[in-house]
Amino acid sequence: MAIASGLPAGFNADSYDMIVVGAGYAGSVCARRLAEACGFHVAVIERRDHIAGNAYDYVDDAGILVHKYGPHIYHTQSDRVHQFLSRFTEWTNYQHKVLANIHGTLMPVPFNHKSLKLAFGEERGEALYRKLVETFGENKKVPILELREKNDPDLQEVADYVYENVFLHYTMKQWGTTPDQVDPSVTGRVPVFVGDDERYFPLVAHQGMPAEGYTKLFERLLDHDLIDVFLGVDVRDILMVDEDYAKVCGKPYGGEIVYTGPLDELFGLDLGALPYRTLDMQFETLDVDQFQPVGTVNYTTSEDFTRITEFKNMTGQVVPGKTTIMREYSKAYTPESGQTPYYAILEDENKQLYQRYLARVSRLTNFHPVGRLAEYRYYDMDGVVASALDLSDELVAAHN
């Protein structure tokens, strides 16, 4: 792998079989697969000054490994995704746990057996838990909105408490709206767990953190003789797409293009901007060994931030007398601000606007949008990798 800052003078796109826009999961996976499976010479074009996309991590001034764009917790049920990524990293045995600060009491999230007893008292909490088991069975995730629909006074009592204290105010802070206006793919991510497993991802087969960090994983993923990475390059300066073909550096490009950025920004927002939520992340280093008992504490009923992450609790890093925490403040995204678009607002009119942008590239046989921005959807990390592997399969089949 060759990494350069900026494009060299006289950059010749035709010397590459594939151009990948973005050095995050989607782009890096496609670059590696096509370099290996088809012998493609690949140019990876990245707007930022680093690889790894939003998973990028680095050591801060206190010597603590932090995630620049918010906590990234690896978890997947996909054996294929896990096997592929495991080529490029060892994994720690980290099992993510989240607590909610509810009026000063820390309760496990997802809301579970222990949470019920903390919220309702030992006896009443146990009775309510038994009703949940009778209704849904043990070790089951029940989406909070589904629980609210049950016509049972005991279940309604649980639903009302969780909805008000775990879900409602947090969702309003995160999305700037009420939960009923949020797409079900988002609300479905906030379940009650009928069981005693206190992990945030109960029953998920593969969990952990890359032993040397995400950036090191990406360095190995992109480390191939046929992959060149160009950092600090805004692809809009060299890529133009119309209904007939894609031009790179002013000339029609005949190779494959894997595009992982926002489609609306590629076209200058000429149909309007696709709405997102973004995050203001405030880092603070404290002169203590540990600030909170778990990696993430959600503030569901108080504060104007949504959560606090303590990175040492996730990485297992030992730095005596110092810890770095990060508070997250959610707000609306504006493209011209230089902010990072994190969460697509998946309302019908926004999906329709995305489809209008997508139609502009759909007839191009060599232009392939992939990833959470290019597909305008929410993905966990493993979902992005799975989507990129699927696209790679199609490209490999077409060229072998």
Describe, in plain words, how this protein is organized in 3D:
The protein is of the alpha/beta class and 400 residues long. Among the domains are: 2-51 and 222-272 and 339-399, NAD(P)-binding Rossmann-like Domain (Rossmann fold, 3-Layer(aba) Sandwich); 107-198, no CATH class. The chain has twelve helices and 22 strands. It has helices at 25-38, 79-85, 113-120, 122-136, 144-148, 153-175, 184-187, 214-221, 263-266, 312-315, 348-362, 381-399, and strands at residues 2-5, 18-21, 42-46, 57-59, 65-67, 74-76, 98-102, 105-109, 140-143, 191-194, 206-208, 227-231, 239-241, 246-248, 251-252, 256-259, 276-286, 296-299, 307-310, 323-332, 343-344, 367-369. The strands form six sheets. It has a seven-stranded mixed beta sheet with strand order 8-7-18-19-20-17-21. A six-stranded parallel beta sheet has the order 1-12-3-2-16-22, covered by helices on one side. Helix 1 links the parallel strand 2 and strand 3. The protein is globular. It starts with a strand and ends with a helix.
